Amino acid sequence: MKKYLLATALSVFASFVLLAQLSPELATTPPDHPLLTATANAAPYAATITAEDMRSYLNVLASDEFEGRETGQEGQRKAAEFIAAHFEKLGFPTIGNPTGAGNGTYFQNIAFTAESWDNGQIELTINGESHRHLSDFVSFPSANSNRERFATGQVIFLGYGIDDPKYSDYKGKDLTDKTILIYMDEPVDKDGNSWLTGTPELSPWSTDWRKKLEVAHQHDVATVLLIDADIKKTVGEARKTLLNSEMRMGEGGNPEGRYANNMFISSTLAKEIVGKKMKKFAKLRDGIKKSGKPAHMDFPCRLSMVQKKNKRQLLGSNVLGYIEGNDPRLKKEVVVVSAHYDHLGKKGPAIYHGADDNGSGSSTVMDIAQAFAQAKKDGQGPRRSILFLLVSGEEKGLLGSEYYSEHPIFPLENTVADVNVDMIGRTDPKHDGNPNYIYVIGSNRLSTELHDINEAANAEYAHLDLDYTFNAKNDPNRFYYRSDHYNFARKGIPSIFYFSGTHKDYHQPSDTVDKIMFEKMEQIGKLIFYTTWELANREDRIRVNVKED
Question: d(Cα 408, Cα 419) in Å, to the nearest integer?
Answer without folding.
Answer: 16
